[in-house]
Amino acid sequence: MNAPALVVRGVEKSFGATRALAGVDLAVRAGEVHAVLGENGAGKSTLMGVLAGLYRPDAGALELGGAAFAPRAPGEARARGVALVPQEPALCPDLSVAENIVLGVELVRLGFVRRAERRARAVRALAAVGAALDPDARAGTLSPPERALVGIARALAVEPLSLVILDEPTSTLATAEVEELFRAVARLRARGLAVLYISHFLEEVARIADSFTVLREGRSVAHGAMAETSLDAVVEHMLGRRLERAEAAAEARVPGEVVLRVLGVAGARLPTSASLELRRGEVLGVTGLVGSGRTELLRAVFGLDPVRRGAVKVAAFGSGRGRDGAREERALRGAAPWRRLLAGIGMASEDRQHEGLAGQMSVRDNLTLTRLEPFRRFGLLSDGRQRAAARRFMERLAIRAAGPDAPVASLSGGNQQKVALARLLHHEADVLLLDEPTRGIDLGSREAIYALVEELARRGTSVVWVSSQLGEVLRVCDRVCVMRRGVLGPARAVRELDEHALLLEAAT
Fold this sequence. Notes:
This protein is of the alpha/beta class. Helices cover 32% and strands 26% of the residues. The protein has 17 helices and 25 strands. The radius of gyration is 24 Å and the shape is globular. The protein starts with a strand and ends with a helix.
């Protein structure tokens, strides 16, 4: 058996009074994919930061390739062959894809960058992850899934390479792109590289990983071979208890009248043709491959992007009924999100970092800024009322934060997503447009969001749920539409579908 390529012994790390790592041990062999598992806040990202030279441990020891390893900066870790692919790759938006891939390891001769060799290396790295991207395209024009693929390609451009760290690499990828990534990881394994793989999707971990380590509250609590354990056992190690899963209850829901109608909508680029009807109390799923137009559809419906052709119509809520008792319907015109908010439509973007939240603002501000009227007294804003409302939503959604005034950037991914959803609840939206609502969050938070959406649907809230996770769509939704090359297919009941049928429709 191969000797360990990486050994971690008793690593500890604190940030002020917060103890992020309280004693972590793990070993990864060359030619092995080793999963590092745990809830958000378990210490996974901090450990990866230590390995990548972002943080220096307070205690413990590291070995890489049989020699002591103590990087004082990311450049030192990279020079030893360690490549980290973060969940949200930090790209320079004004540089090209090729320039981002070789950033920091440029090929230089006599002080000049060897452009042809740089481009060739970038093309090889993109091909290794199956990314059909133009190496000369500006990185700022890429979608979140495309940015993720560039981040992975950048890791593969490191030479020499001994350890690859993949932090939630599939969180923005659809099923076909995940398969491409798995093939790339298999090639890394075949080259004899050690791979640390972090993911909240345990089913994919079971497929790709050879071994695992579970972290809980900063400590390593379990190790083993993936083939010799069960996913239920892994979950119990992660949580320290049995997971109480929300039961799928789509069959028990009886949707009501149509509340949102999209008629032949075409955007500036995507979608090219999309029509749907959303009913009261219904969860309507939209899935498809990355680049098919799923996100662009929601942006067009919400008014973030212009509608080139077609119409978006919404039923009047509240007392908006005609003489026959039916709800009146009106067209929403113009690319103006505030009009959608006034019409009772709210949206949670898949891109939390850049669109969904204001990271340096407080939890209470992120929760309440779209609707401040309830907190005004005599024309003045009452901080106390605003803070009390934020506390109520934090309690209702079990948002873990130091308090309502904590910066939202200090929260874990799952808690940030709960804040984004709580904002829609505070705004009392009747129609929710949720774009990848469980992307990059832990099991417990995911189950909590499933339960929340089930509760809201039972109370009459209508939801459009966009997701690349086929199993999730079938579990959460009443009906599902497939987006393919900009065209939205018809909605069908989940009982008529399975993952194979959805993938076949999306990819052919």
